[in-house]
């Protein structure tokens, strides 16, 4: 018998029911599968379904962890032994992993049942999830719009209440962008907080990290408690937390010094409803007792230029690995036009260009560190325009010149915190008149997820979002 109250619980609550034997892991899995069948044909969030893997986990006996029995999705950029991982690319559509990534191992140790993979754009390159291989992942709030990217499948599945928490990763905003577009909570951790091995020590030159998107703040905090910490191959280590993150999520944040802006870091005009929502949240923060002032860090370099150089080099290496494996040149039958163009651009760049991009990222990081000497938290819109429409970004177009201007307008503020390695979160605090979510982004000093979790817990109480459900909802 399916567990029909499933949707009213977060993952921590579901795990507590399993612990008390009020519901079984099998019942939770059956409900997640039923919910996938109900809404996934509309949103296309769960692109690889391996229900048998999750059932084998349960039959074998789940570890005793903080999320024992909770259904879970791994993003289709991470590997799980014996299951298909495509990276959103046609060439890998039938690939089966022969080992498990370190972060996935830690998710398993936390007790989750991994019943599938959530959609990602090819190699996670876009802030929308519309791979040629699987087609577009649609926003549960409005199916004509994207759920964001690159963790668009994860955010759409959580927003539509298929499950309360799902794996996500962020190299330029890919946790925060879909969290904003889909109306869920998403925190990007400090660089090196969570592991990236065993196959690599860092992603995108240190920009990329993995964590989750969730309905509740406490799920994100408890999951970070479960998975954080170095591994033998870690090239560097994040500062140790003062106390468990779950404890932080329930603590009073005190009176914080919060700087805010309702403008793009480039000085461009942003959507007026988003600007108004940002000012409204700034006023809410002042009403909660925080010291709030309007000011923003100045860009020491252009994040888009540094990002494009470093991401292109990483993309070129992925293409090279595929060519070595399949012993032929890759074509548009194998990868999308954007992926091959990015790899081609990297071949035209020099090693000096790569070091210059690293230096620009350092200059941005240094400027942000200086800015945070005089504030605890910085608030700005996660996205500067509403969620993109499906098809607005076309990665198969022969002319890709439309992409850069859209990215600059849409997500100008997310990547700089990947460069600095600081923690940053998107909190679902506003919706526009058309009913689309508008996330607010809060960032803190490197290593200080604690402040963000405390503030998020306070905002979750002051302006709850858990019971605000999208039109497409399981």
TrEMBL record:
InterPro entries assigned to the protein according to its UniProt record, in alphabetical order: Amidase, Amidase_CS, Amidase_dom, AS_sf
Domain of life per record: Bacteria
GO MF annotations in UniProt: catalytic activity
Domain Amidase: 27-452
Family the UniProt entry places it in: Belongs to the amidase family.
Protein name: Indoleacetamide hydrolase
Job of this protein: Hydrolyzes indole-3-acetamide (IAM) into indole-3-acetic acid (IAA).
């Amino acid at each position: 018998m399916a567990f029909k109250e499933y949707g009213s619980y977060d993952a921590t609550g579901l795990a507590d029911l399993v612990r008390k034997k009020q519901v079984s892991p099998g019942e939770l899995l059956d409900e997640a599968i039923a919910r996938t069948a109900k809404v996934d044909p509309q949103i296309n969030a769960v692109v690889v379904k391996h229900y048998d893997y999750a059932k084998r986990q349960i039959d074998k006996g789940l570890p005793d962890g903080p999320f024992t029995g909770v259904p879970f999705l791994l993003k289709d950029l991470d590997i799980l032994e014996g299951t298909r991982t495509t990276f959103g690319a046609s060439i890998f559509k039938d690939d089966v992993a022969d080992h498990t990534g370190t972060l996935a191992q830690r998710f398993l140790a936390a007790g989750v049942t991994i019943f599938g993979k959530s959609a990602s754009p090819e190699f996670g390159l876009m802030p929308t999830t519309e791979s040629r291989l699987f087609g577009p992942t649609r926003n549960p709030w409005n199916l004509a719009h994207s759920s964001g990217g690159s963790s668009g499948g994860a955010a759409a599945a959580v927003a539509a209440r298929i499950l309360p928490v799902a794996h996500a990763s962020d190299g330029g905003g890919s946790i925060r962008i879909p969290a904003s577009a889909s109306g869920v909570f998403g925190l990007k951790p400090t660089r090196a907080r969570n592991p990236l091995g065993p196959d690599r020590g860092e992603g995108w030159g240190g920009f990329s990290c993995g964590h989750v998107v969730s309905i509740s703040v406490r799920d994100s905090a408890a999951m970070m408690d479960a998975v954080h910490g170095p591994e033998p191959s870690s090239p560097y280590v994040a500062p140790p937390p003062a106390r468990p993150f779950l404890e932080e999520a329930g603590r009073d944040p005190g009176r914080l010094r919060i700087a805010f802006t309702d403008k793009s870091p480039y000085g461009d005009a942003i959507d007026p409803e988003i600007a108004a929502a940002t000012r409204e949240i700034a006023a809410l923060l002042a009403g909660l007792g925080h010291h709030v002032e309007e000011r923003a860090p100045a860009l020491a370099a252009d994040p888009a230029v540094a990002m494009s150089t470093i991401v292109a080099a990483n993309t070129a290496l992925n293409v090279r690995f595929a060519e070595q494996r399949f012993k032929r040149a890759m074509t548009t039958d194998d990868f999308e036009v954007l992926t091959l163009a990015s790899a081609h651009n990297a071949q035209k760049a020099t090693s000096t260009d790569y070091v210059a991009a690293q230096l620009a990222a350092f200059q941005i990081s240094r400027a942000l560190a200086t800015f945070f000497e005089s504030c605890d938290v910085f608030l700005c819109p996660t996205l500067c325009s509403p969620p993109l429409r499906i098809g607005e970004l076309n990665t198969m177009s022969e002319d890709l010149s439309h992409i850069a201007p859209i990215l600059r307008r849409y997500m100008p503020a997310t990547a700089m915190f990947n460069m600095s390695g600081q923690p940053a979160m998107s909190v679902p605090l506003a919706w526009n008149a058309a009913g689309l979510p508008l996330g607010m982004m809060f960032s803190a000093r490197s290593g200080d997820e604690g402040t963000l979790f405390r503030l998020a817990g306070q905002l979750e109480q002051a302006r709850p979002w858990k019971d605000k459900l999208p039109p497409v909802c399981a």
